[in-house]
Amino acid sequence: MALYFTDVFSGSADWIVIDPHAQGTIVKVSQGTGYLNPKYQYQYSLAKNAGRLLGLYHYAGGGNPIAEANYFLSHIQDKLGQAVLAVDWEQYQNAAWGDTTWVRQFVDEIHRQTGIWPLIYVQESAIWQVANCVSDCGLWVAKYASMDWHSWTVPAMTVNTSPWQTYTLWQFAGDDEDRSIATVDREG
């Protein structure tokens, strides 16, 4: 059976956190070294109490990657081992966009401190920026049929994941509710 996930941020409605179509929820924790999602603890608890598979993500601000990794970890220490970790690599509000070393440094620091390799969220057209993480990290790729795809039906389209053989998660819908499908089972 396929697993589906939503990912949420401070502007996400509660119903998205616990949408009955999804088995998991990935919550935004932080961005850069100065932003903490004010609803992070609440959203995490809501998802956990609903029996969801859990994830936590940091949105890259493009500052010092070690400092950003430390900032993220400082807010999630009590949740390590309970949730999958991820870094969100996007162009918007990211001063290091295009830097092919930033995510590598971030994930190396997370791994050095926790023994965990985070997932890497990135749009399909920018996978080349994080390709040097292929041997260590899972890929959470974003590619939409359109921004008007407001359905849990997975679109029939090809997703290029090279150099990864496949994605761990594919975010196939955005806009009102980010929706992803996984290639792993609950244990994965």
Description:
With 188 residues, the chain is an alpha/beta fold. The chain has four helices and nine strands, in the order E-H-E-E-H-E-H-E-H-E-E-E-E. An eight-stranded mixed β-barrel has the order 1-2-4-5-6-7-8-9. Strand 2 (24-31) and strand 3 (35-36) form a beta hairpin. Helix 3 (65-74) packs across helix 4. The longest helix is centred in the middle third of the chain and has 13 residues, at 102-114. The model has no long low-confidence stretch (mean pLDDT 96).
Ordered list of secondary-structure elements with their pairings:
Blueprint: E1 3-8, H1 14-17, E2 24-31, E3 35-36, H2 40-49, E4 53-59, H3 65-74, E5 84-88, H4 102-114, E6 119-123, E7 139-142, E8 169-173, E9 178-182
Parallel strand pairs: 1-2, 2-4, 4-5, 5-6, 6-7, 7-8
Antiparallel strand pairs: 1-9, 2-3, 8-9
Helix pairs in contact: 3-4
Helical content stands at 10-25%
Low-confidence stretches: none
Please report the number of helical segments. 4
Mean pLDDT over all positions: 96
Strand pairing plus helix content: what structural class?
A: alpha/beta
Reported for the largest beta sheet, the result is: 8 strands, mixed, barrel
Distance linking N and C termini = 13 Å
* Order of H and E elements: EHEEHEHEHEEEE
Strand content: 25-35%
Multimer state: single chain
Which strand order spans the largest sheet, edge to edge or round the barrel?
A: 1-2-4-5-6-7-8-9
Give me the Rg, rounded.
15 Å
Shape: globular
Total DSSP E strands: 9
